[in-house]
Design goal:
This protein is of the alpha/beta class. It has a domain of about 60 residues. It is about 35% helix and about 25% strand. It has seven helices and nine strands. Strand 1 and strand 2 form a beta hairpin. The longest helix has 18 residues. The C terminus is likely disordered.
Length: about 230
C-alpha cells in the first residue's frame, strides 16, 4: 500500500512518562497504520496504554522514541487538528459555554461561517439526541449527556479521522449502541476513519478491525492476527 494513503503512521513509537525509577512506559515499540475508511477497535485493560496511543495518533502527545507521522495531513500542527477529531474519555466541555456553543467551538476556531456553523451544530446535536439541551451549561448535564455533546462537537467538525477514547463508557447499553451507530454512520457519510478504544465487547464487535493492547504493547493484524 502506498505510504501516502495512510492517515497516521506509528513507527516504533514509545511514550514514557517520568524518568529514572519512577518512569512509566505507557506505550512501547508501536508500529501501526490507519488508512482512510478504517474502522478500528482497540481493546485492553485499564492502564494498558490505549488512551496514550490515541493521544499520540492525535498529536496531543509526542513520542519519546520512534515517530508518529500524518502523511495525508498538513505538516502544520494547528491545521492538522481540523482534520483529526478526538472524543476524550472525559467530556472536556468548556464550563462557561452552553451545549450549542461547545459544539460550535472547533468550527469557530476554524473560521467556518456563521450559517454553516449553525447548520452543522444543529445536525450534530440531533444525531446524538441532545438537541433539547442546546442551551444548557455543562454543569446542568449528566455525565452521559456531556459525553454525547463531546461526540457531537467532533461530528460537527467533520474531520477525516475520529479518535474516540471509551466513548460509551459513561452511557447505558442502549445509548452506547446508538452512539456507535451514529459514529459509524457519520464516518461513512463524511468518509472519515474511526479508531475507538473500548472495554465493551459489543462495541468491539461493531468495528471491522480489532487491535489489542497489553502493558503498552499493541497487537494488530500485522503482528499476531486480528483478535476475535
Amino acid at each position: 500500500m502506498n505510504h501516502i494513503e495512510n492517515l497516521v503512521v506509528c513507527t516504533d513509537a514509545s511514550r514514557t512518562f517520568g524518568s529514572g525509577l519512577s518512569a512509566v512506559v505507557a506505550v512501547q515499540g508501536t508500529t501501526a497504520q490507519v488508512v482512510p475508511g478504517a474502522r478500528i477497535a482497540i481493546a485492553g485493560p485499564s492502564g494498558s496504554g490505549k488512551s496514550t496511543l490515541l493521544h499520540l495518533m492525535a498529536g496531543l502527545e509526542l513520542p519519546t522514541r520512534g515517530q508518529v507521522t500524518w502523511p495525508s495531513f498538513s505538516t502544520d500542527a494547528a491545521e492538522r487538528t481540523q482534520d483529526i477529531g478526538v472524543v476524550f474519555q472525559s467530556p472536556s466541555l468548556v464550563p462557561a459555554l452552553d451545549v450549542a456553543e461547545n459544539t460550535a467551538l472547533p468550527l469557530i476556531l476554524a473560521g467556518v461561517d456563521e450559517q454553516e456553523c449553525r447548520a452543522r451544530v444543529a445536525e450534530a446535536l440531533e444525531r446524538v439526541g441532545v438537541s433539547d439541551l442546546a442551551g444548557k451549561l455543562p454543569e446542568e448535564l449528566s455525565g452521559g449527556q456531556a459525553q454525547r455533546v463531546a461526540v457531537a462537537r467532533v461530528l460537527a467538525q467533520r474531520p477525516r479521522l475520529i479518535l474516540a477514547d471509551e466513548p460509551t463508557g459513561q452511557l447505558d447499553h442502549a445509548t452506547g449502541q446508538h452512539l456507535i451507530d451514529v459514529l459509524l454512520a457519520t464516518t461513512a457519510q463524511i468518509g472519515a476513519a474511526l479508531v475507538v478504544t473500548t472495554h465493551d465487547r459489543t462495541v468491539l464487535e461493531r468495528l471491522d478491525t480489532h487491535w489489542s493492547m497489553h502493558e503498552g504493547r499493541l497487537l494488530t493484524a500485522a503482528t499476531q492476527g486480528v483478535l476475535s
